[in-house]
Structure formats: structure tokens, C-alpha cells
Amino acid sequence: MKSLTLEKANIIINAATNKARKLNMAPLTVVVLDEAGHLKAMQREDGATMIRQQIATAKAWGAVSMGISSRSLASVAEKRPDFMNALIGITGGNLMPVPGGVLIRDTKNNVIGAVGISGDSSDQDERCAIAGIEAVGFIAGV
Length: 142
Known about the structure:
Blueprint: H1 6-22, E1 29-34, E2 39-44, H2 52-66, H3 70-79, H4 81-90, E3 101-105, E4 111-118, H5 122-135, E5 139-141
Antiparallel strand pairs: 1-2, 1-4, 3-4, 3-5
Helix pairs in contact: 1-5, 3-4
């Protein structure tokens, strides 16, 4: 299993923010968590609003804790709102069921972490997370 090092986490962040700048997106906050949901790296672009770190973390934490992307969690929320409300309550609100939280998988398909991004539309946030993950040769789990 390839591991998610600090160096790779920082490359993911840089690649994600570079993608955002090429797309002329709003300022982002990018969070990289390890497979246990612990913070590996985080950067907040100049101009990113105050609550973006919490949103990005909740997207990534929800993905890594449930083993599915935050986009998939949004689908669960739509189909099973009572379950999702209970899950959000159990996690103390630390889960955000909208796109932008993407699993990081190694080449053997093991979950080794997650990226959460907040700042622009959820779809664009997710797009940048995928670009960051793929920049280091990992597989984006959407």
C-alpha cells in the first residue's frame, strides 16, 4: 500500500488550487485527512471565507469515515433523510453530504485518506479534489 505522506498531501493541495486558479474559481480551502480522519494538511487561499475550513473538513471526514464520497453521501441523504439526520447528529455535525469530499485510494484500491474542498460550487470543489488526487498517482474515489 502506498502511504499518504505529508509531501503528497501538500502536492494534492497545490494541484487542486492550481486547477481552481486555471478555472478562475472562488478562493478555496483544501483539507487532506488520513485514513483515520486525522488532519494531514490544510491550506486556505487568500480570500476564502471563514467557515470554509469546517466545511472542507466535514466533506472529507464524512467521506473517509463512511467509505464513500460526499457526493454519494448526498445521494444517501436524498433517499434516506432520517438516516442522514441521525448520522449528522451522531457525528456532532462533522459530516457534510454534498460533493467536494473525495476518497483517496491507492493503486490497490485501499482507502488511504480523503480530500475535502470548499469555496466554489460543490461540483467545482470536487473537480479540484480529483485533480489533486490524480496529480500524485492516487485514485479518486467519487
